[in-house]
Design brief:
By secondary structure, the protein is mainly alpha-helical. It folds into two domains: about 110 residues, no CATH class; about 90 residues, no CATH class. It is about 55% helix and about 5% strand. Strands 1-2 form a two-stranded antiparallel ribbon. Strand 1 and strand 2 form a beta hairpin. The longest helix has about 45 residues. The radius of gyration is 29 Å and the shape is elongated. It starts with 9 loop residues before the first helix and ends with a strand. About 30% of the residues are buried.
Length: about 260
């Protein structure tokens, strides 16, 4: 017979961190929690909480930094999404070849549009049965067909359409080339292409900065916990410094530094 299932430790640990006292005697397990562990655990959950519990006003610094970093993260992500919507609009209005309702592709699709002026056709001869791959290797789809031939065609031969080697190459092409909803052509639209590339770069930069801000959030939790632990032991506290730094592209790069020592 299986023993009764025990409750998870999560609520118990949160209660211990909140109260700073051992579990009630009626529980199955009593875990004594030292003041250092209690302070560190509090600050690991909520930066500054352990410092407040120790009566140290600098807990507000960790809390305010936490709030500021979350605001920066959310604003940078929102800015990244705005730039993403803009470059998608430029692509649709300037380069994409309409074939029905507008559909959006994955990131790799928009990245390919920065590197290839033309997608080429997906089916070079719609009047012919089946898919006739794009033959121009200077286009994205044509390059995929050239790659498929190099992989599956025997050297120096051109298999017929019924040959297994041809069918394998065609399957590769159909899986990696872009079909009618995604075809594009930047020919004669250099200004629009340059604008599109700038918007792509700005969007990518904002998302990277948002990830950096999120990393700083995690670092703030860890350093606040270390600071609370050392403070509870009477050691010099830890400090985290987050400083914005302008980048050539007009964005912001966040630099992080940590040290031990200093006054509360």
């Amino acid at each position: 017979m299986r023993s009764p299932r025990r409750a998870g430790w999560g609520p118990v640990l949160v209660l211990l961190l909140w109260s700073g006292v051992p579990a009630p005697a009626g529980g199955q397990v009593s875990v004594p929690l030292s003041p250092t562990a209690s302070a560190a655990g509090r600050s690991l959950l909520v930066p500054g909480w352990g410092q407040w519990h120790l009566g140290q006003r600098r807990g507000w610094g960790y809390a305010l930094l936490e709030a500021g970093l979350w605001v920066a993260h959310l604003e940078l992500r929102a800015s990244g999404r705005d730039y993403r919507n803009q470059y998608r609009d430029v692509a649709w209005s300037s380069a994409r070849i309409p074939s029905g309702d507008r559909v959006e592709g994955p990131w790799a699709y928009y990245e390919a549009m920065t590197e290839w002026v033309r997608s080429g056709a997906f089916d070079a001869d719609p009047a012919h049965a089946g898919v006739q791959p794009e033959a121009n290797p200077s286009t994205f789809n044509g390059a995929k067909w050239a790659l498929a031939r190099g992989i599956y065609f025997p050297p120096g031969s051109t298999p017929t359409e019924t040959d297994p080697a041809y069918q394998k190459a065609l399957a590769y092409y159909e899986a990696h080339a872009y079909g009618p909803p995604y075809l594009w052509d930047w020919t004669g639209k250099d200004a629009a292409l340059q604008q599109y590339r700038r918007l792509i770069d700005r969007s990518d930069q904002r998302f990277r900065e948002a990830s950096t801000a999120l990393g700083a959030v995690l670092a703030n939790h860890v350093l606040s916990a270390i600071d609370a632990y050392l403070s509870a032991r009477g050691k010099p506290e830890a400090r985290l410094r987050v400083a914005p730094e302008a980048t050539p592209g007009g964005g912001v790069r966040w630099t992080l530094s940590a040290r031990l020592g200093g006054r509360p």
